[in-house]
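[Meeting: bench + compute handoff]

Bench side (C.D.) handed over the final construct sequence. Compute side (W.E.) agreed to return the predicted structure before the next meeting so the bench team could plan truncations. Sequence as handed over:
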Amino acid sequence: MRHAIYDMLIKEPSMNRRILVIEDDKDIAGLVELHLRDSGYDVAVAHDGKLGLETALAKMFDLIILDLLLPGIDGMEICRRMRARPSYTPILMLTSRSSEVDRVLGLEMGADDYLTKPFSIPELLARVKALFRREQAIRSETSPESYKKIEAGQLVIDVGKRKVTINGKEISLTTKEFDLLLQFARHPGHVYSRIELLNQVWGYGYEGYEHTVNSHINRLRAKIEENPASPRYVLSVRGIGYKFTDLDEINKR
């Protein structure tokens, strides 16, 4: 008899979302495909990295479930190439490795969440639903008002174009760096803990991964701050976390 939670997950509407599963273990791929289809999703499967990347680049998907260890092109490289694209597709990474280093590397390469093998099907479905709920929540916040440009001194964020300039010069940011900066800039003065930033930007809260936030902030500061050691925009709040500078104050300077 199936667990009640499993039945609840299957009954939730999937809205015909398309999912690409890139997994070389055919038994795991088949099991994942079966249960995703039972949940109402449109599923495509690739059993190696090369075909998986080609499929991901050729078609539009709402989610990619990506194994870390793949023949041909590994999951890290696929994730890197997907994050180099202007369009954003959520990635749920699967890994048989228990090493924290591998999980952190996957998240820093741009994966939105991860599952360590062996995993349960109800947990997989729950993670998929959580990623889609987060995406829906983000979309609900994207009113015409939210797409206005944000100006902070010489820093300009064009939200609609996902473009950042300083003194008129465009700054190249990764997807997560842009999302992190936008989260700060939309809430100037608000102090975020690292766990809160994980929840808001990465979509998960996991104690022990705060250094993922730290490394992204360090790279962001290196790109947008004239002097990263004495930042003007992304400020540290000792003992708590980080905040974005007050817009009124910095625009007066």
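W.E. noted at the follow-up: The first strand starts at residue 18 and ends at 22. C.D. will use this when planning the next construct.
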